[in-house]
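in:
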């Protein structure tokens, strides 16, 4: 892997990806939807502004709005 992918080899990031995969599977959602739902649950001074260039990306964004609960699964990514 090149330098642009080095972050993928960091153990904490690997653990995060496994957690995202597990939550997405539990909800029957994609990782993108889980990530967007998690971002909406954060108390930030900014909000994500996702944009879609494809129908698949739009579907992930729409799917994220179904994941609005503050379950431990969505909160544990801190």
């Amino acid at each position: 892997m090149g330098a642009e992918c080095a972050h993928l080899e960091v153990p904490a990031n690997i653990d995060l990806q496994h957690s995202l995969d597990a939550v997405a599977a539990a909800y029957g959602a994609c990782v993108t939807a889980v990530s967007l739902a998690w971002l909406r649950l954060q108390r930030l001074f900014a909000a994500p502004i996702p944009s879609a260039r494809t129908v698949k990306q739009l579907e992930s964004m729409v799917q994220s709005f179904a994941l609005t609960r503050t379950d431990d699964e969505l909160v544990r990514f801190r």
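note: The mean pLDDT is 79.
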